[in-house]
User: What shape does this take?
Amino acid sequence: MLMDVMEELPNPNAKGFYDMLEDADEPLWDGCENYSKLQAATELLHWKSEYNISEAAYDHILPIIKRMLPKGEKLVENFYETKKLLKIIRLPEKKIHGCKNHCMISYGADSDLTKCRVCDHDRYKSGKLPYLVMRYLPIAPRLQRLYLTKKTAKQMTWHYEHQTEPVLMVHPSDGEAWKHFDSMHQEFSSEPRNVPLRLCTDGFSPNNSNTTPYSCWPVFLSIYNLPPWVCLKEPYVQLSIVIPGKKSPGQNIDVFLRPLIDELKMLYTNGVVTYDASTKCNFTMKAILLWTVSDFPAYAMLSGWSTHGKLACPYCMGFLANKVERSSPPPILTGDQIWEQVKRSIFWELPYWRKLLIRHTLDPMHIETNVFENLFNTMMDTPKSKDNMNARKDIEMYCNRVQWHTWKKGNKDMKNRASFALSKEQAAKIWKWLIKLKFPDGYASNLGGGGVLM
Assistant: This one.
């Protein structure tokens, strides 16, 4: 448990926030006990966003609602007034221009450049419109905000206060990697209110259409102080960066991570003064990035190690080529060993990154789907099988397994049928079984609607 501390007045930033909330938290009308002016505006704005209501429709419905309320009501007049009222709780956002080719962003010393210093591409289109704009949402104010409500501030020390049997793991703080960090950075771990974070990113198409390809890459941060049943809930997952498309940032993702890395370095070295509503005292809050979570392609982008080609394995790193491997797993490399072998991503600028036991982890939900589809297609010997001619040639080049090598029939490359590939009769039995297979609602996707069966 945290030691008893003397109560303090909120620091100036926190006090200003509380004062503004108090001014806006007046009843919606005299005697109203259910809604404040601020709460009503918040719910109306949420309704507008949830159902994609136009600004014109929003401005039209508000006067109708106002006429239904008692005299002296204080409901906002229109969308403009709603935004003005909610400005007091709005968190900062930065729009940062970037090179169309993902070479650089207009940040720091490069803020005033009108051409890319790498490829010399213009920053602006005609009319002074930038070619590319990324959004950065600073994380320090958002972490501070979590401590301004008593309930959430109390939950922010759950990782420190919970008790677990030695053989069980119910939270990352019970794991070896977390404990290793605590032992190496005791000054950080001695303050339970300091914040360990995880970073997650993946691309998605907001248009949901193959005819207009566009890949937007959001970068999320999760807060590990909170209980497991809370930390992954939507209100507590922080959107930090939105990297625009049309294409994936690829290895240039480091370009867009620059503002976040700079803020993470500040949060580890200096921290920010934060008011804790649960203990009613101020403290210097620090934060660290414990690891990243991604699927295998994004792992390559974040780690700097290519997951394609003959050196795709990030553990053996190609040292085991041209042999049949039957030994135990390769040894875990230290940060210093990895430092000498990989393309160093921007995360290595973090002062603690080299000493972490785990830096990048894989998202099992993505991998389970991908691995299942690849295994299924390969065993069913469909056109999407990974046991194709290119794979066999790779085996012939890098692995001493003669039974999988290719052979020639005239001018055509041939391969023997794999022992793990089902015959047509065996595959037919699987199809018949799948047609009759039923799952509870929500436990399986539609296998026949564009999945592995097509």
About this structure: The chain has 16 helices and eleven strands. The chain has a mean pLDDT of 86. The longest helix spans residues 253-269. Residues 138-304+343-362 form one domain.
